[in-house]
Specification:
By secondary structure, the chain is mainly α. It has helices at about 20-30, 40-50, 60-75, 105-125, 135-155, 170-195, 200-225, 230-255, 260-280, 285-315, 340, 365-405, 410-415, 420-430, 435-480, 490, 495-530, 535-540, 550-585, 590-605, 615-625, 625-655, 665-760, 765-775, 780-785; strands at about 10-15, 85-90, 100-105. The protein has a three-stranded antiparallel beta sheet with strand order 1-2-3, with helices on one face.
């Protein structure tokens, strides 16, 4: 074990119930049962127990710490950092090691585990055999690994910890420890070159870099509140030691190259560096002091020899220190994070070195959210962008048929007696669905949903109105200046805006409901006929006389029937397309793709909590599959326009052929009314279904609105109660102050009367004062003064204050002559309080000497 280097101590902790917190979180936030993860819960407790038990420098501890750290990083994508456990960790360095730091933070736990891994590498480096070349190489590797872990904590863990790290784990402290580990690793390579008797120039370059690392560690340590002064003195001593060693080795290189003047200059500078290092002797170990003294003896001997040889033989001028070339550096170390730490996540899994990833079957809550978001976007795309457009085309087509009195005019001609087959089938459909009862029941259900939503909304509004009345009443009572909190409309501005938005939705929905009810009233009579018996239909539809079918009429009717058949086929094909789109949406299960994407995110970004926004690219790819369906809309519209054009042309030819024939007019009107009634029934059912869905969705919004109002109104009421208590206390203080002033005024008047009466009757002032004290006046009794007040002004003390003026309660300044502060001037609150007259240390000094650079 090397005695002239430092090792990082372990941080300590004690057991916590991590598995119970994870179990509780799964139970409350996930749709999966915690019982599915019994083995994982037991394993996470075991891994933590193994990791925190590593308090001795042994290589077996590396795996224990690395495995638990990898699992913690993996859990960062499954759970929030504030999982519900206060992890207690005791500082490893500093001046307050007996008081633990508690944080409800998984990354805080991870940072401490990795800190202990760095400490383990550091201790292994120090405990390795430094007397052999192989031991020095191993020690250097451990030191580099320790620095790599510390660098990983600084770059990957601390920035995402979302809380303030402990003082002994802040960035400057870790920077100091990292450079200390690098300095000691570089020192190992320096010793290897010494043992291998390598050239003095090479040894000098290595020693100069060791000196650089030590002063970097000392500089960062001075900025830290945890690195002890003993460690800083050690780092500075080692800095000066290796600066001296570098100059000494460079002097030998100069001797070999016959640069005798520079040799002497570097030997002198080496002794100066050693002497600066020995100034730290009071605070550093005897081993380091011995190393410095040994180097000093050797340098002094070489300097004595060099000066003698130069004076007698070489007669070279000694190079001035300012002209000495700064030594080159050879760096052999750099922070290297071990693969077990940097790639720990990739080592988790079945058949992997670190075993299976715990809770890998747990679907993150963000995945459920992402699935809901995708389903909402998919349904909106299908229903509002595709299906709604198709249904709108069909509605426009029906309007065209209705405007042309089709198919009623053709049916009346083709079948002057009885009922058309298409009408009979439509009537049968309405009878089977009990059309009137279905519409009325849907309207009642919609009204119930609407009433429930409106009630919840009004509850929230009542709370807002009541809070506003209370706030206005308090503001009127105490005044705007004293009642200083924000008015309700500003403090609860978001809630008031939400209330306006909800009111707009409710008003719009009410207008739509009125339109649906009006549409139902207009068509209720015809729907009763359609849902009645065939006899009712026959009574409604009058028969007409047989029309003589001329060749022109027959040809025009045949052409019109062909066009109507095209319309029917178009409607049927469009209806099937809409049903197919709905089935496609139902079959579109994004779950497996979300799980695969979540697994990829967990592997690539283990410390980042999964958010639904990370699946946007997946959403875009999946929704792209519906673009072909959207492209069909243009073709559908073009086909419909062509059919409508042919239909209008055929209907015009049909009307021209029958010009002047009115024998089927009444039958035509009846048939057309029944056909229109069937179309209106379909519209009503669609409208009512839309309304039901709207009010179901609105229920969630108004419920959240009410709960938010309850929570924020309660907070406002607690705040108002506290403020009212403070103001009431101030009013009571003012009342007491006025009573005190009246008492003092009464006392002053009474004492003045007593003093004048005592002098007129020849009595002593003290006797008169005592008499007046024992006999309070009626005014004093009225003011509530029950205790006598001593009149010290009659005994040579300062006179009492004038009537209505409170006596000063300011403390008398102590040891401040003439009211000035240490060197002149009047003290002000913004000056602060200074102790002593010595000037403060300048930044970077802290009582330490300026570092040297060889």
């Amino acid at each position: 074990m090397a005695a002239n280097v430092l090792e990082i101590p372990f941080r300590r902790t004690h057991s916590v119930d991590l598995s119970s917190a994870i179990k509780q979180y799964i139970s409350s936030k996930y749709d999966q049962s915690p019982g599915m993860f019994t083995d994982d819960l037991r394993e996470i407790d075991r891994l933590r127990s193994d990791a925190i038990s590593v308090q001795e420098p042994h290589t077996s501890g590396i795996r224990k710490l690395a495995v638990y750290a990898a699992q913690l990083r993996y859990l960062g994508g499954k759970f929030p950092i504030d999982i519900g456990v206060d992890f207690p960790w005791y500082p490893a360095i500093g001046y307050d090691k007996d008081k633990p730091v508690l944080q409800n933070n998984l990354r805080f736990e991870l940072a401490n585990i990795l800190f202990n891994l760095a400490a383990l590498y550091s201790q292994l480096s120090v405990r390795t055999n430094w007397t052999t070349i192989d031991g020095l190489k191993q020690a250097a590797e451990y030191g580099i690994a320790a620095a790599g872990v510390l660098a990983f904590i600084r770059k990957e863990i601390l920035p995402d910890m979302r809380s303030t790290p402990p003082e002994d784990m802040d960035d400057v402290t870790l920077d100091s420890l990292q450079n200390l580990c690098l300095a000691q690793a570089q020192e190992c390579f320096w010793q290897i070159t010494v043992k291998k008797n390598m050239s003095d120039g090479t040894v000098a370059k290595l020693a100069a870099k060791v000196s650089d690392y030590y002063i970097l560690a000392a500089d960062a340590g001075r900025q830290s509140r945890s690195v002890s002064s003993e460690w800083i003195h050690h780092m500075q001593a080692k800095h000066h030691h290796f600066a001296a060693a570098a100059q000494y080795r460079q002097s030998r290189y100069c001797l070999q190259n016959k640069q005798y003047g520079e040799e002497i200059a570097r030997l002198k500078d080496s002794i100066a560096c050693v002497n600066e290092g020995l100034q730290e002797a009071r605070w550093i170990s005897a081993t380091v002091v011995g190393d410095l003294n040994g180097l000093k003896t050797r340098v002094q001997e070489d300097l004595k020899r060099a000066e003698k040889d130069n004076d007698v033989i070489y007669l070279h001028a000694v190079t001035p220190k300012s002209e000495l070339r700064i030594l080159d550096r050879t760096n052999m170390v750099a922070p290297k994070t071990p693969a077990d730490v940097a790639d720990g996540i990739s080592l988790l899994g079945e058949g992997q070195p670190f075993g299976k990833a715990l809770f890998d079957k747990l679907v993150p809550y963000a995945v459920h959210q992402a699935a809901s978001i995708y389903e909402d976007r998919r349904d909106r795309l299908l229903n509002q962008s595709i299906i709604a457009d198709l249904e709108a085309m069909t509605a426009r087509l029906r309007e065209v048929l209705q405007s042309l009195d089709l198919p009623g005019s053709l049916q009346a001609l083709e079948k002057p007696l009885g009922l058309p087959g298409s009408l009979v089938s439509k009537a049968e459909e309405l009878r089977q669905q009990d059309a009137l009862y279905r519409i009325k029941r849907s309207m009642e259900d919609t009204t119930k949903l609407k009433t429930n939503d409106l009630t919840i909304y009004q509850e929230g509004m009542s709370l807002l109105d009541a809070e506003k009345v209370e706030d206005d009443r308090a503001r009127a009572r105490y005044g705007t200046e004293r009642w200083s909190r924000q008015p309700s409309e500003i403090a609860l501005g978001k809630l008031y805006q939400s209330s306006k938005d909800l009111q707009t939705y409710l008003n719009s929905a009410a207008s739509s409901d009125n339109l649906v009810e009006a549409k139902f009233r207009e068509n209720e009579h015809i729907l009763k006929i359609l849902s009645g018996t065939n006899r009712d239909l026959e009574r409604f539809v009058p028969s007409s006389r047989q029309v003589e079918m001329t060749p022109a009429i027959d040809q025009a009717a045949s052409r019109l029937r062909t066009c109507l058949n095209e319309v029917s086929r178009l409607e049927t094909r469009r209806k099937n397309r809409i049903n197919a789109l709905r089935e496609k949406g139902k079959a579109d299960d994004i779950g497996p793709a979300l799980l695969a994407e979540a697994a990829r995110l967990e592997r690539e970004y283990p410390m980042q909590k999964i958010d639904p926004s990370q699946f946007e690219a997946l959403f875009d790819r999946r929704l792209q599959t519906y673009e072909s369906d959207r492209d069909i809309l243009a073709a559908e519209q073009e086909e419909q326009d062509q059919i409508v054009a042919r239909l209008r042309e055929a209907n015009k030819a049909f009307l021209d052929a029958r010009r002047g024939d009115t024998s089927t007019r009444d039958r035509q009107k009846a048939l057309q009314a029944l056909d229109t009634g069937y179309a209106k029934y379909k519209e009503l059912i669609s409208n009512l279904e839309t309304g039901r869905k709207f009010y179901n969705d609105l229920a969630g919004h108004v419920t959240r609105f009410r709960e938010n109002v309850k929570a924020q109104v309660n907070e406002r009421r607690v705040e108002a109660s506290q403020l009212e208590g403070e103001l009431s206390g101030q009013d009571m203080g003012r009342l007491n102050l006025e009573e005190t002033r009246r008492e003092l005024t009464s006392q002053s008047q009474t004492q003045s009367q007593s003093h004048s009466q005592g002098q007129g009757q020849g009595q002593g002032p003290q006797t008169r004062s005592i008499k007046n004290q024992t006999a309070p006046t009626p005014q004093q009794r009225q003011d509530g003064i029950t205790a006598p007040v001593p009149t010290r002004s009659l005994l040579g003390h300062p006179p009492p204050p004038a009537a209505g003026v409170m006596p000063s309660t300011s403390p008398v300044p102590v040891n401040v002559a003439g009211g000035t502060i240490a060197g002149g001037g009047v003290w002000r609150p913004d000056m602060g309080i200074r102790f002593g007259g010595a000037p403060a240390n300048q930044p970077g000094q802290a009582g330490y000497p300026v570092p040297r650079r060889p």
